Amino acid sequence: MRVLVSGAGGLIGAALIGSLRHQRHEVRCLTRGKTSGSDIPWDPEAGRLDAGALEGLDGVVHLAGENIAGGRWTPARKERILSSRVQGTHLLSERLAGLHQPPPVLLCASAVGYYGDRGEEVLEEDSPPGQGFLAEVCRAWEGAADPVRGAGIRVAHLRFGMVLSARGGALARMLLPFRMGLGGRLGSGNQYLSWIHIDDAVLALIHLLEHPGLSGPFNATSPRPCTNADFTQALGKALRRPTPFPAPAWVLRLALGEMAEELLLASTRTRPARLLASGFRFEHPELEESLRHLLTEGMRRAPTSAQEKRP
What we know:
311 residues; 8-stranded mixed beta sheet; Rossmann fold; alpha/beta; disordered C terminus
């Protein structure tokens, strides 16, 4: 396949590109910086993207967006988080919809923040959206792909949970304090955390690229969500360190404001019902095994090797 990827420098994008190239697919990248080789330049804020460079693709994977955990959510930062997703998705969708030879599929990232804070409720893809800033962002993000849907191109939205990788993201940031014995639950620890191993995130994307009958939203999360307390215990066990230092909710709210409320204290218990129904098989559905894998073998392997075990 000839696949275009945005967000190529991100955690998921880098792993996906490595895996696609390992399978000898041709990969092109959308980039805002200097281009090289077959890279395609774009500037979503300025509305710049050469439609001619998009002709003849077999698939597009759109992962680009401002890091939601990159700093306190000031009004300006919230605007960047929203606009980076909506503007980029809308621009790409409009260009793809107007092509003479459009790709048959667009995979567009989304997030489990779509569901908001829902306590112990089990959330599948047909569950209604929740309340809050992240839910608002995800609704607008998914809606920005409407031009592609209107052109008859297959669109799938992957609602990612926390992607676990020792090479970056939330888990990598946790490792140092946990290794120092400073880890602990956040707030009550009863809030549910939807997560996915980086290998399974990549495998889910490729699964949706390769199966033309699959469209709409998909929860890209392990079928075994856990509470924050369970995650804390499992990570401490994997590192053989105690986790005696809980972070009270009021401290997190004081330090991080709204971001703490929606990213750290909200409870989102998702089930990947549509992925499972499509025949997708998770390589790492269990949390303890996933953490052991990432902290031992996963530290020594390239994140692109997820496909090696796939028959």
